[in-house]
Amino acid sequence: MKQMTELQKKNVLRQSNKESNALTRECIESALVLLMKEQSFSEITITDIIRKAGVSRASYYRNYSSKEDILEKFLQKITIEYSNALTKYDPSTESFESWLELLSRTRKLAPQFKLLLQAGFGEKILDRFIAQCNKSNNESNPYLFITNCYTAGGIYSVLSQWVLSDMEIADNTIATICSDLMMQGLKNPVKCALVEDND
């Protein structure tokens, strides 16, 4: 059997380190999700996270600079999944399929999505959704810009409320309703009830 060259050994070691770091990140992310079921994000310390994850402080800081950094990575992951879902189908002709894809990807990332919402990152998620919808458009086309903002806001609202309600409504039901709305618009606009000020 041929001996490995130094370069091959380094490549094996690099791959091993990469896999080790990926496992460490997975443990840390899972630990934060579990801790958020017991405490608010502001109460959780890095010490709490590393204890729950069973990793060293050095391993933690090799992967994350702060606990907010974990949320930022979640946000990046959700944005990538959202972007991939929207580009897989043409929303103007395959709206139902597009919604099913969005819901399927959201279901997989529901713990992270919910954690971001509970940690007050909802506005950041919405900002990313809006930026993603307007990626190929600039504000010089106001109609397209406003349409994209409106669409992103609707998608964010549906997905966030769905996740917060533990995804009780079936994917097909949401996809049917939302694709109808996207293709035909609101037939019977809902009038929001005004809350009276009793003071």
Automatic annotation (TrEMBL):
Q: Which UniProt keywords apply?
A: DNA-binding
Q: Which residues bind DNA?
A: 45-64
Asked if the record carries the keyword DNA-binding, the reply is: yes
Q: Which residues form the HTH tetR-type domain?
A: 22-82
Keyword Magnesium attached: no
Family matches, as PANTHER family: ACREF/ENVCD OPERON REPRESSOR-RELATED, ACREF_ENVCD OPERON REPRESSOR-RELATED
> What is the name attached to this protein's record?
TetR family transcriptional regulator
